[in-house]
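User: quick one, sequence for these tokens?
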């Protein structure tokens, strides 16, 4: 067990983030299933709505595989939520935009989330919300950096296991 009070606080924050992420995912699944989409599809709609418009960008930001992005965008195009167009300079590149139907779906889901979360955020000032948002952004950036340097992370994990004599089954 870690005895350092600061380390315990850090571990507690990670634990809370993991548990909260799972709760957000489950709540989202309930909402998204009512509209015939998945969490990944919602994430893609949000990204397209905020200007991310190619398969490669969508995969990079969302951490969803290119194959899955291609599959999901095809489904969303079939449902009329997005429009795909071929790049003028490079015919291998697809560009995405929201249709009116897709924008309405996104706005509807946002309003459901807003209604659900108003009690959570009403107690916080705008500066505090901005601070929390900045913390989450820096956390995401750090974790993306770690994942982009996966080999270093794996070496560190192996070294720690070896130093501590941990038996992994």
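Assistant:
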């Amino acid at each position: 067990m870690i005895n350092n009070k600061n380390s315990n606080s850090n571990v507690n924050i990670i634990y809370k983030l993991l548990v909260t992420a799972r709760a957000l995912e489950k709540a989202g699944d309930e909402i998204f299933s009512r509209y015939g989409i998945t969490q990944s599809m919602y994430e893609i709609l949000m990204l397209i709505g905020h200007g991310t418009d190619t398969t490669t960008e969508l995969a990079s930001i969302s951490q969803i595989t290119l194959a899955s992005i291609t599959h999901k965008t095809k489904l969303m195009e079939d449902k009329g939520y997005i429009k795909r167009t071929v790049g003028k300079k490079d015919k291998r590149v697809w560009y995405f935009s929201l249709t009116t139907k897709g924008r309405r779906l996104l706005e509807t889901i946002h309003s459901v989330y807003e209604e659900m979360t108003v009690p959570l955020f009403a107690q916080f000032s705008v500066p505090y919300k901005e601070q929390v948002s900045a913390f989450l952004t820096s956390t995401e950036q750090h974790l993306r950096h770690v994942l982009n340097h996966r080999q270093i992370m794996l070496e560190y994990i192996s070294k720690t296991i070896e130093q501590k004599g941990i038996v992994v089954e």
